[in-house]
Amino acid sequence: MEFIKSPLNYTGGKYKILAPLFEIFPEHVRIFVDLFAGGFNVGINANADKIICNDQIHYLLDLYRTFQGMPTNELINEINERIDYFDLSLTNAEGYHALRERYNDSKNSIDFFVLTCYSFNHQIRFNNSQKFNTPFGKERSSYNASIENNLIRFCEALRTKNVEFHNQDFLDLDLSKLTSDDFVYCDPPYLISTGSYNDGKRGFKDWTLTEERQLLGLLDELHAGNIKFALSNVLYHKGMSNDLLIEWSRNYHVYYIDKRYSNCSYQFKDRNTKTVEVVITNFESGGYVQWQQQSLF
Ligand SMILES: C[S@@+](CC[C@H](N)C(=O)[O-])C[C@H]1O[C@@H](n2cnc3c(N)ncnc32)[C@H](O)[C@@H]1O
Questions:
Q1: Using one digit for the tens of pLDDT, what is the confidence trace for 145-198?
Q2: Which of 6, 17, 197 gets mutated to test ligand 1 (max ligand atoms within 8 A of its CB)?
Q3: How far is the CA of 170 from the centre of ligand 1 (A)?
Q4: Domains of the chain by range and CATH?
Q5: Ligand 1 atom at shortest distance from the alpha carbon of 190
Q6: Residue 124: CB partners within 8 Å, gap ≥ 6?
Q7: Percent of the chain scored above 70 by pLDDT?
C-alpha cells in the first residue's frame, strides 16, 4: 500500500514509519482520532468511518480546511501565482521575506503553505506575537514536483474521507462519546527530545512533565473505558531516558519501531547513543507479533 505523505514535511512527522504503525493499528475503526495531528501524516491514511484531526496550532487547521474546501487546480494556480509574484526560488531570500511579511499581516492560509515550502527545513515556527519567523531555506527548500504530488493526493483524501477538524488542547477535546469501536492515536511532543513546535517559544503551550502526566492519565481513562489507543514516543534519546513513560508502559504493550530493540541480547549497550522509538498500545496487535514486548528494561 502506498501511503499519502503530508505536503508539509512536518518536523516529527511519522510518514517514514507508517508501515509499522498501520501494522500495529486495528484494521478498521469507526472513529479514528489523531489527537496531535501536526502534518496529519497518520490520520490522513486511516481507514475509518470518521477521522478527527486535532492540533493546538490553529494555522494548521485553517490550512487543512482551505485544502478541503478548494478545487485542487485552483489551489495550485494560487500557489503558482504567489511564486511568480514574489519571484520565489531556492536563492531569493528577499522574495521569501516579502511573502512572510504579507502572511504575518493577513494570515492567509495559502501564503502560509507557500512559506513552509521555502522555509528552513520546511519548519513552522512562530514567535510569541504569533509572527511566523522561520528563516529562509536557502538552496534547500522550494515548492517542487514532489511537494505538488503530495499536495494533490493529500487534498483528494481530505475531500473523499470523512475528516473533521478540531483545534483544541488535547485535554479539552471531547472524547466522551467514543466507544470500543473507536481508536485514539497520540503523537505528542516528546519530553526528552525538543522539536521546534515544543520549545515553548512560539506562543503555543509547551510540553512539560505536567502535560506528559496528564496525557498518560487520559490514556489510562480511555483504557478503563475500553477504548483502544496507541501512543508514539521515545523511551531513550541521546543518553536520556523517559522513566515516567517506561514505568507506565509496563501496564501496556510496547512495540519497538526498530525491531532490534525488542531483542534481549541487544540490551543497553547502545542506549546512550540511540533513540529507542516505540508505540505503546492497550491492545495486543495481531500484525506485528515479532516486535512484541520483550525485556528491554
Ligand atoms: C510530533 S508532532 C505530530 C506529528 C504528526 N504525527 C505527523 O506525522 O505529522 C506533535 C504535535 O502536537 C501538537 N501539540 C503540542 N502540544 C499540544 C497540546 N497541548 N494539544 C494539542 N496538540 C498539541 C504540536 O502542535 C504538534 O503539531
A1: 999 999 999 999 999 999 999 999 999 999 999 999 999 999 999 999 866 554
A2: 197
A3: 9
A4: 15-57+167-291 (3.40.50.150), 62-151 (1.10.1020.10)
A5: 1
A6: 8, 10, 11, 57, 59, 60, 116, 132, 134, 196, 197
A7: 88
